[in-house]
Amino acid sequence: MNRRRSSRPAPAGLLAAILGGILSGQGCSTSPEQGWALASTHDQQYRTISVPMFTNDTWFRGLEVELGRSLVVEIESTTPYKVTGQGTADTLLRGRIQSARLIKLSKSVTTGLANEMLFEAELDFEWIDLATGETIVKRTGFAASALFTPSRPSQETVDLARFGVVQQLATDLVDALRDDW
To answer: How confident is the model over 37-80, as pLDDT tens digits?
Structure first.
C-alpha cells in the first residue's frame, strides 16, 4: 500500500501553530504605529496589591466577605498582580459597599408573591499607589445586579443572586484596574 504524504500540515496542526505564535507574542508588534499588540493592559510598574475587607454599609451581612474572596481570586487569576498584606504591597485596593437592595420586578396575580426579583449592589472603590499615596483608579457608583426567581417552580434563593452580584462586581472592578485602552 502506497501512502502519499501531504506537504501541508493538517488544519488542526496549522491552527495550533498559529495560536501558539499569537499567544507567545511572536510576530506581533509592540509598537502602536505598527498595529495591534498583545502586550498586557495592566500597569507593569506594580507587582503586589493589598485588598483589605471593604466596608459594608448595608443590611446584607457578609457581603463584604464574599466580595473580598472573589476579588482576591479574580486579581490573582486574571492580572499579573499578587495579593499580599498591606505592609509588603505596592498598592492598596479599598472600598465601601454603599447599598444593596432587593427589587420586585413581577408578582403573581394569584398569590401576590414575587415571581422575579433583582438583587442590586453598589460600591465605591479606590486603588492607591502606596509609594506615592496617589490614587491610580477611583470609581463611585460601581454597580451590578442579578435576577432570581423565588417563586415556584424555580424557588431560587437570594443567595444565588448575591453570588451573581459579587462575582460581577469582582470581575468588573478588576477590569477597571487596567490601563486605559
So the answer is: 555 567 678 999 999 999 999 999 999 999 999 999 999 999 99
3-state SS string over 7-24? CCCCHHHHHHHHHHHHHH
**Structure pTM?**
0.74
SS3 content of the chain, % helix, strand, coil (to 5): 30, 30, 40
Distance separating alpha carbons of residues 48 and 131, to the nearest angstrom: 12
Residue 145 vs residues 32, 163, 168, 173: alpha-carbon distances, Å: 37, 10, 8, 14
Pairing relation of β-strands 82-83 and 91-107? unpaired
- 41-80 in b/e form (b: 16+ CB < 10 A) is eebeebeebbbeebebeeebeebbebbbebbeebbeeebe
Q: Give the residue extent of every domain in the chain.
A: 1-39, 41-176
Q: Which CATH class is domain 41-176?
A: alpha beta
User: Tens of pLDDT along 8-19?
Assistant: 545 555 455 554
